[in-house]
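REQUEST FORM: STRUCTURE PREDICTION
Request ID: SP-0412
Submitted by: Lab K.M.
Chain count: 1
Length (residues): 167
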Amino acid sequence: MDIPMPRSWYREPMVWLVIAIPLATIPAGLTTLWLAARDPASVASADDAARRVGQMQFADVAADLEAARRGLRGHAQVQADRRRVEVRVATVDGDALTLHLRHASDPLRDQRVPLEALGDGRWVARVAPLGHDAWNARVESSAGWRLAGRIEDDAPAFDLVPAVGPG
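STATUS: Completed
RESULT:
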C-alpha cells in the first residue's frame, strides 16, 4: 500500500490564498489613501459659505432666498463652439454678475468668469471650451442674489432658478 507523500507548503493553494488576500490589501489601502489625499471629497466647495457642526454641514442659502424673494429667473444659451455663454436675467440694473461653472467630475476645470452686460437684460461670458460635458452653473450678483442651473452634455440652453424657495 502506497502512502501519499505530503506536499510542500508552497504547493498548497489554500496557503497562497491565506497569504495573497492580506498582501493585496496593502497596495489597495495605499491606493485608497493616495486618492483621498489627492482630491478630498467635500459636499461644499471652497467658494461656498458653509460650516460644519458635528457631522452636519450647513450652507449659506441667503443669496438663493434673495433671488426667490425677488422672483428672479433666467435662461442661458451655450453657443455652438461651447466657448461663449449668453445669459438673460431680468431686473438686474447696475448689478455686476459672475458666472461660476463647475465641472460635474473634474474640479480642476471649474471656471469663474465675469459677465459682460449687453443691455436689455442680456449678459455674455467668454469661457474656456466646455466640451461635451455636464456642468453646474451659477450666476451671482453683486446685489446678493444667486441663480443656479445645469448644463447637460451638449445642451444648447439651460434655465437658471433660485436653488431654494422662500420659507
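NOTES: Helices lie at 13-38, 62-70.
Reviewed by: T.R.
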